[in-house]
Write a structure and sequence with these properties.
Blueprint: E1 6-16, E2 20-28, H1 32-35, E3 36-37, E4 42-43, E5 49-50, H2 58-68, E6 79-83, E7 88-91, E8 101-109, E9 119-123, H3 125-133, E10 140-147, H4 151-162, H5 169-175, H6 185-202, E11 212-213, E12 222-223, H7 224-237, H8 252-269, H9 286-302, H10 311-318, E13 331-333, E14 339-341, H11 349-368, E15 373-376, E16 381-384
Parallel strand pairs: 3-9, 6-10, 11-12
Antiparallel strand pairs: 1-2, 1-8, 2-10, 4-5, 6-9, 7-8, 13-14, 15-16
Helix pairs in contact: 2-3, 6-7, 7-9, 8-10, 9-11
Amino acid sequence: MKRKQVLHLPALEIRQGRSRVIYNFAVDGKLLPQFTSISRIARNEDDLIQGYQRPEVISHIAQIREYLESHAPMLPNSIVVAFNKRVRFMPTAGKNGSVYSRAGTIVIPISEEQEQRVGWIVDGQQRAAAIREARLRSFPVSVVGFIAADDEEQREQFILVNSTKPLPKGLLYELLPSTSAKLPELLQRRRFPAFLLDLLNRNEDSPLRGMIQTPTTPDGIIKDNSILKMLENSLSDGVLYRFRDNEGTGDTESMMEILKHFWTSVREVFNSAWGLPPRQSRLMHGAGVVSLGFLMDAISDRHRKSRIPSRNLYTADLLPLFDECRWTDGYWDFGPGAQRKWNEIQNTTRDIQLLSNHLLIRYKALVWNRTGVELKASDSKPVKKKKAGR
């Protein structure tokens, strides 16, 4: 049977401004490779730029494909295609539109040979690739097309489409707890931590109430991403991991009790550094928040028999570190020749690791392996042990 050489698809022609025209239509995404190509960015023999698209991102395509193969997937965003002049639009006879648009049929030649294809994907190449690879018989998508005079116009539209400001990550994170649909892997992983963050920021008995900066709490002083990192670390390999289930959520009540106990103790022990903007206090800074999260896990591990350590236990174990910390002034002593001014600690992987290791090493030396000091959880104050024979 001879393969169909032309697609006739119902379309809407939309006029924008004085001379621009775009075409909106639906097509089976499995047919996109028959009339579209990808214009890869490269340099020609004269060292001039050709094309505009980056290589396919395999991991991103795999995530979209997994979503497409899930229950009730939806891709609401249109794939943008630049066509050459071989594509035609035939309006439906009679009055069939409005001031801005008219209905009709878009006529698209198709070909198995790449050089004969009439369209180039300007936006949506990863989605198109995922549809191509997905184990689906068909998947209809919305396409917005325009007739491009040349490669330069295609590149211009590619830049304009992809240079628009993306949604702030903070907005996405705040929306995550109110969703239940399957999401791309990164957002899926952050849904439960975002849920815990929301509870910490909103519960009346939370020491962090209103302190985490989100779109709905713009006056918060701690960046939401810092809290998310702290929670993710503990959920993956810390005290909160103990209360997780196979679904990636778990015993929320116990997790929140631990978080509230620990951060209330942090507020009590380091009160002078609490509640200040990050530029005035590294306690409220990303490096401080993430590092203290590791310390929370270490203290909880030491008191593992308690299951949920009390606030007094956390306070007792934090007190010996008071003189070791330089949250608002002075110099951190990271060892011989490794002194750092308090505000030189930055929210980088290297500095977070440096600060975390320092706090954990000092905690082990002063508390975990202590021999001369007994920390009584009942009053949260260090009490000197009497030496034998005295």
